[in-house]
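Researcher: Going back to the complex we discussed earlier. I've cleaned up the inputs and rechecked each line, so this should be the final set. Can you rerun the prediction on the complete assembly and write out the structure?
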Amino acid sequence: TQLLEQSPQFLSIQEGENLTVYCNSSSVFSSLQWYRQEPGEGPVLLVTVVTGGEVKKLKRLTFQFGDARKDSSLHITAAQTGDTGLYLCAGERGGSNYKLTFGKGTLLTVNP
Amino acid sequence: SQTIHQWPATLVQPVGSPLSLECTVEGTSNPNLYWYRQAAGRGLQLLFYSVGIGQISSEVPQNLSASRPQDRQFILSSKKLLLSDSGFYLCAWSADRGLYEQYFGPGTRLTVT
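Model: Rerun complete. Updated structure for the full complex:
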């Protein structure tokens, strides 16, 4: 059972378009993180959301945590080729003994 | 600032040979340490994690083992590699309190031939 479902699995868009990717679960998380990974490199932490309904912005990226803390979304405005990569969400559940639950990721390709 | 190192970056090993991957963290003390394997650029599979020296928790029964001989050193080993051990291995650390945000090393690409 995959606790965190990410959709879509693959997304290919043109530069300048907007997009949203989703991270959904039936479980409640104490916090949720988004990472971006480029080919051959380790994931890099983008943001952590903690409070239900929280919205955080990182330049053209907007992250939202669901009110019930079971889901999250990442919206990118005016995508650039440099946004290409694998976007992973990861959640921490209370009592998880320091472990994160990772989704399988959304592979985003932004074409010039 | 904190830095995490992994080596080697790439490794090609024959089936049945031993394995040792090393991970070290600088700039923090008593970190939580993690080993993940990633297949085909997709999700991360947690293999081992450690909350202190000599304390190892295994998540998946397999051909691998982990050790933490020093506070900021984490080693992934195998006595005899299998073809199925091929993959991208990532080490990560998190603080021992707070949000447990994880910070990843550059990874090791292992190919078992």
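Model: Worth noting: Chain B has a mean pLDDT of 93.
Researcher: Good, that matches what I expected from the previous run.
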